[in-house]
Design a protein that fits this description.
alpha/beta, Rossmann fold, 3 domains, 4-stranded parallel β-sheet
Length: 411
């Protein structure tokens, strides 16, 4: 009898139609025929029960979980060493709030300094395994730079569509990898990507979202958040706080924790909490209104520049509800304060990534955080690309003359 092989497929969230695994990047064909958009999601059926997390060999990271990820298993897998990021116990913020088990998942140490590397690694490998040699991305910064780096490693042609106002530093960093950059309005960013993808030659490293062009694959890379936290803590956390624009990272982590439950690697699901800036808080508004689908809001400008999308994903909203989590939002002043507090922890994090820390006080008042279980704030990206004003409390720069004794400054 032939050995049963593990298999991947794609399933529509709207009509339930299943498709063989392949580069279906325009949503569900059956729904499209009816004039609607169905989001396709990758589903995995292992041939046998996957190896337990604590039995796996090698360091933490995506390579450790390749049998649970799409994108092929050959020797040509493209990796830059993504994942396996530290889980750091809070030395100041947690004790001050009365959170005895507060941890920071520091994603700024990924190869391109953000959590997007988990998403992009899987996406690039799927694109390559499907025969694509060109990829396109629409991004405000971190995703675009991650795609540029992985495209270079894979020897693939890359195009980066950015909104006007994207810092020149980000665009120049991406261009160093050899990508072509297109700048357009924030509103035209996704339509431009979709026009490029319709030519058939470009694979979209876009988002997992109800749009005419989708990426069903990259979200699988975020499952590794769940695997890693369970391995690092020896159990699932009580709550995980994510900075959210669309909420893809939160939903991917939910999938990982759900798989861990199904495979017996964990006996609980953490409460997943979406943290957003005030005015761009689609998740919080949707929960308050009891809306089944994510509510779209007017576009706003906030300090959390990479988390100001007008609408979050329906999947992220569902993950919050199914995990008995919640959503919260904060002002720019609260967010700036959180970035300064993280500096005291030794962590330089971009403002958008500090959203979970900024939301802690509000969530404590709501009694939305467990007192007797680990609470993890996912810090998604470095502060180097999105600098904020230096705190006024830091010491001044001291200018010492060539022949001046330094002792006078040591008091």
């Amino acid at each position: 009898m032939a050995k049963k092989a593990a298999s991947w497929s794609l399933a529509c969230d709207r009509c339930g139609t299943r498709y063989p695994f392949g580069p279906l990047v325009h949503g569900c064909p059956a729904c499209a025929e009816k004039g609607t958009i169905g989001v396709l999601e990758a589903e995995f059926r292992p041939a046998k029960k996957p190896q337990a997390l604590d039995k796996r060999k090698g360091p933490l990271g995506l390579e450790r979980y390749r049998d649970l990820l799409p994108g092929g298993d050959g020797k040509d897998w493209i990796s830059l060493g993504e994942g396996g990021t530290a889980l750091i116990p809070s030395r100041h913020i947690g004790p001050e709030l009365g959170l005895r088990q507060l941890y920071f998942k520091n994603e700024s140490v990924n190869p391109t300094w953000s959590f997007k590397d988990r998403f992009v690694c899987v996406s690039i490998n799927v694109a390559k395994s499907c025969g694509f040699r060109r990829i396109v991305v629409a991004s405000t910064g971190n995703l675009g730079i991650s795609v540029a780096a992985y495209a270079a490693a894979a020897g693939m042609e890359c195009m980066f569509v950015a909104p006007r106002g994207t810092s020149a530093t980000i665009l120049e960093e991406a261009r160093r990898y050899g990508v072509r950059v297109i700048v357009t309005s924030a509103e035209r960013r996704l339509p431009v990507l979709e026009d490029i993808v319709r030519t058939g030659a470009w694979f979209p490293i876009g988002l997992f979202l109800r749009r005419a062009v989708q990426n069903p694959f990259g979200i699988e890379g975020y499952k590794t958040f769940g695997y890693e936290m369970i391995e690092q803590l020896g159990r699932a956390p009580g709550a995980v706080l994510f900075p959210c624009a669309r909420g893809n990272g939160l939903y991917g982590a939910y999938k990982g924790f759900k798989e861990a439950l199904a495979n017996g690697w964990s006996d609980s699901m953490p409460a997943l909490i979406g943290c957003q800036p005030a005015g761009a808080n689609s998740l919080e508004v949707s929960i308050e209104r009891g809306s089944e689908d994510a509510v779209e809001l007017p576009r706003v400008s906030t300090l959390a520049a990479s988390a100001t999308e007008t609408v979050s994903s329906d999947h992220a909203l569902r993950a919050i509800r199914e995990s008995r989590g919640t959503a919260a939002s904060v002002t720019d002043a609260e967010l700036l304060e959180a970035t300064y507090k993280l500096l005291r922890e030794g962590l330089s994090i971009e403002p958008s990534s500090a959203l979970p820390v900024a939301c802690l006080k509000t969530l404590m008042k709501r009694r939305a955080l467990p007192a007797d279980a680990p609470v993890v704030c996912v810090l998604t990206a470095t502060g180097l690309r999105w600098p904020v004003e230096t705190p006024k409390s830091v010491p001044p720069v001291i200018e010492v003359g060539d022949n001046e004794p330094v002792e006078r400054y040591l008091k």
